[in-house]
User: What shape does this take?
Amino acid sequence: MLRDVCNCEVTSSFKLEADFVADPIWCNICGWNLDIDEFPLIDNLKDELYQWTKQYKKIHINKHNSIGQNLTKKVEEELGLDYRIIFIPDK
Ligand SMILES: [Zn+2]
Assistant: This one.
């Protein structure tokens, strides 16, 4: 559980979705955009997430979505069983 990172008191449910200005991880309950640095992720993976966000709308949508899917899996593995994260594909 992460505490005081969004409008929820605690949350363990997230979604990965790219946007132009924001970090790509959001609370899946209140929809708050979360600071990636709040997450217990290895720096490599944070870098990959930043790169992916930076390429938003610059690469083909299918490629964007397949990388996003892959990153979601990696984040899921890093966070462990106490957390849930889903991927929201770009349309
Ligand atoms: Zn929340």
In short: The beta strands are 2-3, 10-11, 13-16, 25-27, 84-87.
